[in-house]
Amino acid sequence: MMRETLAAAARVGLSVIQHAEDTRMTQGASMNLGPVSFRLGLRGMPPEAESSMVERDIRLVAELRESHPHLHVAHTSHSRCTGCGAAGAAQRAARYVRSGAASFPAHR
């Protein structure tokens, strides 16, 4: 579905903005997984829930690069995971066309 969305948006010159979250991994979670979620006894969202979606969509942008898709990863929160965070996503996507990311401290 995301491949088709990226391709269709590219045909008409639109960007696709993605909220990177694999909801199969975040169901019932209320905050990022870490020491605070542990201390509070809350189920945390693992970094992979975000990074797996970012990685998948950057791969799709690479595969569709001839059609010039534009992917924007919105408000990433796990800057420590590979391919996540504004810096990580931007570095990985730099070799492809028109991609970006945004990260906000409030989500950390």
Task: Write up what this structure looks like.
The chain is an alpha/beta fold. It has one domain. Helices cover 43% and strands 19% of the residues. It has helices at 2-11, 23-26, 35-40, 47-63, 85-93; strands at residues 15-19, 31-32, 44-45, 70-76, 99-103. Strands 1-4-5 form a 3-stranded parallel β-sheet. The chain has a two-stranded parallel ribbon with strand order 2-3. It starts with a helix and ends in a 5-residue tail after the last strand.
Number of domains: 1
Mean pLDDT comes to: 80
Spell the H/E element sequence: HEHEHEHEHE
Secondary-structure class: alpha/beta
Biggest sheet strand order reads 1-4-5
Rg to the nearest angstrom? 15 Å
Low-confidence stretches: none
- Globally, the shape reads elongated
Q: Distance between termini?
A: 29 Å
Number of helices: 5
* Percent in strands: 15-25%
Instruction: Report on the biggest sheet.
Output: 3 strands, parallel
Range of helix content: 40-55%
Secondary structure tally: strands: 5
Sum this structure up briefly.
By secondary structure, the chain is of the alpha/beta class.
Question: Can you lay out the helices and strands and say which pair or pack?
Answer:
Blueprint: H1 2-11, E1 15-19, H2 23-26, E2 31-32, H3 35-40, E3 44-45, H4 47-63, E4 70-76, H5 85-93, E5 99-103
Parallel strand pairs: 1-4, 2-3, 4-5
From the structure above, extract its key features.
alpha/beta, three-stranded parallel β-sheet, two-stranded parallel sheet, 5 strands, elongated
